[in-house]
Specification:
The protein has 3 helices and no strands. By secondary structure, it is mostly helical. Helix 1 crosses helix 2. The chain is elongated, with a radius of gyration of 26 Å. The model has no long low-confidence stretch (mean pLDDT 74).
């Protein structure tokens, strides 16, 4: 039986391994400092991923739809002009 925690444990170990041996963080070479940095980075990662998508794409409104259609606010979308 496979545990649902395996992917999380893998990413946690891989992050800790890379942080410790890559001498990143505020106290390079300290395994406890690497652990604190990894917990902070893995906790803030999904927040920044959500914000990057949320803040990147524009939100359309009613004015945008009218401007893209080429019609003015008072013009009807009728067929060809009667002669």
């Amino acid at each position: 039986m496979r545990s649902p925690l395996v992917p999380g444990m893998f990413f946690g170990f891989a992050s800790h391994f890379a942080t410790y041996f890559g001498v990143f963080g505020y106290d390079a070479g300290n395994p406890w400092a690497a652990c604190i940095c990894v917990v902070a980075v893995n906790a803030l990662g999904p927040v920044f991923a959500y914000l990057s998508v949320r803040l990147t794409f524009p939100v359309s409104s009613g004015k945008d739809a009218v401007a893209r259609s080429g019609e003015g606010p008072g013009e009807a979308a009728a067929g060809p002009d009667p002669v």
